[in-house]
Amino acid sequence: MIEPAQSYEQAIGFLFDRTNFERTPAGGAQDFKLSRMRRLLELLDDPQKRLPTVHIAGTKGKGSTAIMLAETLSSAGFRVGLYTSPHVHAFEERMQVAGQRPTPDQIVELVRRVQVAVSHCEFAASPFSPTFFEVTTALAWLFFEMQRAEIVILEVGLGGRLDSTNVCSPIACVLTTISRDHTQLLGSTLTQIAGEKAGIVKPRIPVISGVQALEAQAVIVEKCREQQAELWQLGRDFRYVHTSHSCLKSSLTDPGYSLTNLGTVDVETPVERWPAMTLTLAGEHQAHNAAVALATIDKLRQLGWSVSREAAQIGLARVRWPMRIEVVAQRPTVIVDAGHNWESISALGQTLEESFLSPGISASRRVLIFAATRDKDVVGIARQLLPRFDTVILTQYLNNPRAVPPRSLLRLIQSVSDAPCHLASTPAEAWQMARRITTSKDLICVTGSFFIAAEMRELILRDDRHPDRSATNAISRSSESVR
């Protein structure tokens, strides 16, 4: 039998001792079985069946769309449960109700309840061991019910069809952008990947789709037809117009400038027009996500959920979502982004050109801090990113074993670019180097992986010392310069 957790540390230790595909890649689709999740939740009295849910899948944009929906519904007065992954700094970031995460004592209580169910699973006649994500998802459902959530916004972890979240009872299903990622698990073509994502579609449950790739759209249309599910498709049933702001120009000319209004979006759905909605997240892709979120709100309104125009305006203006082209410092401007695949890096590049690197507002020097994960298209990402920067600092994250070592990154990058590169063995060394070689008019961008974004973000935010500008051209002794 599993020893019940007696402290927060023991509870977190139990969770992270489970098989964790965020740290160790799965061997294949055979590692994902909804039967495990169904049995685990059955032993917990199926809390997911009692909570209306908006289920969100997609390659990118699902987290941003989820927080937009959660803030809008919260502004309308509903107790909203929100489930996202992975976390940035602390495990309990993954779940919240009415903006509140579980306390350490609640984590212990919830883990103890889940441990009883896990013990039954592991020692039954047909034993199986629930994974980290399965246990975490079950824990989240218990938390939502404990805190009397009225509606849950649920982000898929990986794929859709076989994801642990796909045992919920949705009142609406949302598909964001679909592109190539996790191809070893989801398939190598957009048609195959879209089939996995569209696996969340349920009989006669409405679907709101922001998918733009035509071959993926075709899969979704067919899936909705099979399930007799009403489909609202971006570009056909709803549309948007985006107006962006020149962020770097405002930052340089006004030292007190606050990056909380990064543009507006006008959205028209089959039942409503939403003019000049404030965006607090940068980029055309975030206007796209806002359009999907507002179309979902309109569908929920049709289903009886009362959300006023004012609540939607307030909700979108309250959105804060770390590491989505997040400006964490100014003078120099420091951007941290969790982009890690071709589509998300493309969105980052487009946003940099629109709001930070366009003619007349460009930084004096552009520095990229880059790290990557082993199963990603490093060469494809490098082709997009490197031409936009003057200097590249290659490093690796430390808290996950899937990091590509800096020297291996260098070999990959040198195969497609002759950009000047420096090597830093840790995020701290990379940050110290970037501080030394930049001035207040420059731009530093951290990207390439969720994990490097998380580690660098924490490092940058806790570093309140002003860079030593007298060492502008110095290079850390513990780092290497390669040309």
Radius of gyration: 22 Å
- How many H/I helices? 16
Helix content: 25-40%
Under the CATH scheme, which architecture of the largest domain would be assigned?
Answer: 3-Layer(aba) Sandwich
CATH topology of the largest domain: UDP-N-acetylmuramoyl-L-alanine:D-glutamate ligase
Would you tell me the structural class of the helices and strands? alpha/beta
Give the domain tally: 2
End-to-end gap:
57 Å
**So, the CATH homologous superfamily of the largest domain?**
Mur-like, catalytic domain
Poorly predicted parts = 465-479
Shape: globular
Mean pLDDT: 87
Strand order, main sheet: write it out.
3-2-4-1-5-6-7
Largest sheet: 7 strands, mixed
Strand content: 15-25%
User: How many DSSP E strands?
Assistant: 17
CATH class group of the largest domain: Alpha Beta
Can you describe what's shown?
By secondary structure, the chain is an alpha/beta fold. It folds into two domains: 8-317, Mur-like, catalytic domain (UDP-N-acetylmuramoyl-L-alanine:D-glutamate ligase, 3-Layer(aba) Sandwich), CATH 3.40.1190.10; 326-482, Alpha-Beta Complex (Protein-Tyrosine Phosphatase, Chain A), CATH 3.90.190.20. It contains 16 helices and 17 strands. It has helices spanning 8-16, 34-43, 62-75, 104-122, 132-146, 183-186, 190-197, 214-226, 247-253, 284-302, 309-317, 342-356, 378-385, 406-414, 427-436, 450-462; strands spanning 53-57, 80-83, 95-97, 151-155, 170-175, 207-209, 231-233, 239-244, 263-268, 273-278, 326-329, 333-336, 366-370, 391-394, 421-423, 443-447, 480-482. The strands form three sheets. A seven-stranded mixed β-sheet has the order 3-2-4-1-5-6-7, with helices on both faces. A seven-stranded mixed β-sheet has the order 11-12-16-13-14-15-17. A three-stranded antiparallel β-sheet has the order 8-9-10. The longest helix is centred in the first third of the chain and has 19 residues, at 104-122.
